[in-house]
Amino acid sequence: MTAATITTVATTPFADQKPGTSGLRKKVPHFRQPHYVENFVQSIFDALDGFAGADLVIGGDGRFFNRETIQTAMKMAAANGFGRAIVGRGGILSTPAASNLIRVRGAFGGIILSASHNPGGPDGDFGIKYNASNGGPAPEKTTDAIFARTKSISDYRILDAPDVDLDAVGETRLGDMVVEVVDPVAEYQALMEKLFDFPRIRVLFAGGFRMTFDAMSAVTGPYATAILEGALGAAPGTVINGTPLPDFGGHHPDPNLVHAKFIYDLAMGPDAPDLCAASDGDGDRNLIIGRGIFVTPSDSLAALAANAHLAPGYAAGLKGIARSMPTSAAADRVAEAKGLKAYETPTGWKFFGNLLDAGLATICGEESAGTGSDHVREKDGLWAVLLWLDILSARKQSVLDIMRDHWRTYGRNYYARHDYEEVAAEGANALMAGLRGQLSTLPGRSFGALTVKSADDFSYHDPVDGSDSAHQGVRVLFEDGSRIVYRLSGTGTAGATLRVYIERYEGDRLDLETGEALKDLIALSRELAGIERHTGRTEPSVIT
Ligand code: G16
Prior knowledge:
By secondary structure, the chain is α/β, with parallel strands linked by helices. It is built from 18 helices and 27 strands. The longest helix is centred in the first third of the chain and has 15 residues, at 66-80.
């Protein structure tokens, strides 16, 4: 038992603690300002009710400042009256594993420390978010209450106690609160074994199937090594960059074609493995590249939804399919063909939570490399890889053949996302305002072969709790079903990031090069919004 006293510390509000798309994300030096972390954590607790004596899951992706913040959060949880903190060994919990732990342990909620795919290190990014008892990111009404509290906070409570050893599994005490350090992988692996046909996937690997999984020196390494190389018998060395590092080895742990170029090149090279995959900083995103074929996240969602019944966990079929608005409509075609309901939500995994809780949807996905299901309430990188493996082992076909077959059945949604990163916020805001100002004038206008059918600023009415979310992105929809969508990222930490999503559906022309298929739409996306005029950029920084 650690002797400990509760201290109440006077503080003043910070004006910039508004949670973004997924929690509060800032640079590490910003978080290291005196009281910055404490103010936000206390504001989370102040926005919640009824947690006296309850369990709180705490963990993060191992990035720089993770361990210090976990100690702070635990001492504050103890001082605020939580009964038990459940913490991953070494402070490690992937975001989906944390979501699972909240659910299986019936915890009140969880604090997840991550800035996802953003770089780490002393000058890198950090983040704090709160997940509710369903295991999912707090809904807007909670994040609004947290933000409101950050603006009026005048003190916080913290236990004056020595740090807890995070590296030994077992129980200890922090004042009146129990601290339980758990193996971060065990519960998650048990869940995966229930959902997927591990013996069948083992046969696939035993038959010579080769795979490379790039954990990007981030949190998924221990999970992927235990499951792929351990339980499933993939060859040693299948998992690369498998040790989580505080600075991700100096890399940007974003599994896209720029930052995971190594595995893209591998998959396109002469000795390509059958499957290349990667996950991000906190393990919730995924990248899937078969031999000779990059599967866009939107196509991956559609293919997984179309084939999920082949995995034991989904053998009973799906209840519905949900996608975020900027995600391509490929998944909608699967839903339509299978007679399932399709949902279109704003960007942000939190919007899927109600649909999953209410049993309206089983599989969800986003263009931003997130796919998941009702097994947890976060997107789940390794889950997506395992579902692909299960499907590959059931169909005994290559990724390329499965995708070709998919397009023949459903048609193909050519799709690209253009990111203009770290542009000046004023220019980005002016660009969006300019687009919003044009909305009423666009319908009926023609640009070359393209005629605008409708244009709007997307708003969402949640069918479960009745809440409304407006201004979720500008959509320009064309007569032929093509689309251009514009929105500003809610996860960046420097300047603004403009995202432009471009899509065209083709029923027959299935083998075009994406850039070629979208050429006129890409040019129009720049002209309509005045991208160069507002941002000074002539080309995007990242294309996926
Ligand atoms: C978060 C959200 C996702 C969202 C993504 C990108 O993911 O959970 O729903 O699609 O951000 O958001 P934005 O386009 O606003 O940058 P993560 O992986 O960063 O937690």
